[in-house]
Design goal:
The protein is of the alpha/beta class. The chain is about 40% helix and about 20% strand.
């Protein structure tokens, strides 16, 4: 079933002079089994929204339904431990999630905390670390001695080792070089396609949104601005301009060519499709 938010509200420091409404009545249905990007300007409510999905934050108004659980502002939720196993959240700052003596112990902590034997937890931790590109030479290192990008890989491995139903990632490729970022995004795609899991990615990278995501949610001023298929979203240039979003490179190239007299349709969203359209026009006018 989809993840459903109904009039979801969240106020930080409610009933104090410092109260701040981060979510102002969000109505949203996130499609099950898809990769959904969540984008928006800084302060738009992206991170606050995703922290509700495993009840790290609780609503101050409205409700949300996820994996047959309904969480409201009126009732204290039950069985949060099992929800947090099923909905894995990787924070924007990975050092917040790293605390054990070694990398292997850190990644194995989650599975052990949710009932796995030490042998099973270590096996799952080793497999998860290998999936994120960290071999056995990292297992006994302190996670605090790693680079920012390596810390992010360990944090992601720690969530993958718990085998969640829903994977929520807040800026997962920050701190990674371009090749590392591509490897991580490909990993999330495999997790989604092969295991049929739902993936939500908070990101500012429009190349990743176009190349890896199925749907896009745009947050603005604590509210849902739009929710569309990615292929539809990047055809609306006026909307991208209104949101002050720099389009992906292939879209910018397409529009530059059209300004020079080409007639390339707005549905052209890949390099191969763009090359085909250019070849056809050159052939036609040659």
């Amino acid at each position: 079933m989809p993840i459903t938010l109904e009039n979801l509200q969240h106020v930080y420091a409610a009933n104090t002079p410092f109260s701040y409404a981060a979510l102002n009545g969000v109505d949203l249905k996130i499609t099950e089994g898809k990769i959904t990007a969540i984008i928006g300007a800084t302060g738009s409510g992206k991170s606050t929204l995703v922290q509700h999905l495993n009840a790290l934050l609780l609503p101050t108004g409205g409700k949300l339904t996820i994996l047959d659980r309904t969480i409201t502002a009126e009732e204290k939720p039950q069985h949060l431990k099992s929800l947090r196993k099923q909905v894995g959240l990787v924070f924007q700052f990975p050092e917040y999630q790293l605390f054990e003596e070694t990398v292997l112990k850190d990644v194995a902590f989650g599975p052990k905390n949710f009932g796995a034997t030490e042998q099973e937890a270590n096996h799952r931790a080793q497999e998860a670390l290998k999936r994120v590109g960290l071999d056995a030479s990292y297992f006994e290192k302190s996670p605090l001695d790693l680079s920012g990008g390596q810390k992010r890989r360990v944090a992601i491995a720690g969530i993958l080792a718990m085998e969640p139903e829903v994977l929520v990632l807040d800026e997962p490729t920050a701190g990674l070089d371009p090749q590392g970022a591509q490897q991580m995004m490909a990993l999330f795609c495999r997790f989604n396609r092969e295991q049929k899991k739902t993936v939500l990615i908070v990101t500012h990278d429009m190349e990743h949104v176009l190349n890896y995501c199925d749907e896009v949610v745009v947050m603005k001023d604590g509210k849902l601005f739009t929710h569309q298929k990615v292929t539809d979203f990047f055809q609306e240039l006026s909307l991208l301009k209104e949101l002050n979003i720099l389009p992906p490179a292939v879209v910018r190239m397409r529009e530059m060519l059209n300004e020079k007299g080409f007639h390339i349709p707005s549905s052209t969203l890949t390099l191969s499709a763009l090359a085909k359209e250019i070849r056809n026009e050159v052939k036609h006018h040659g």
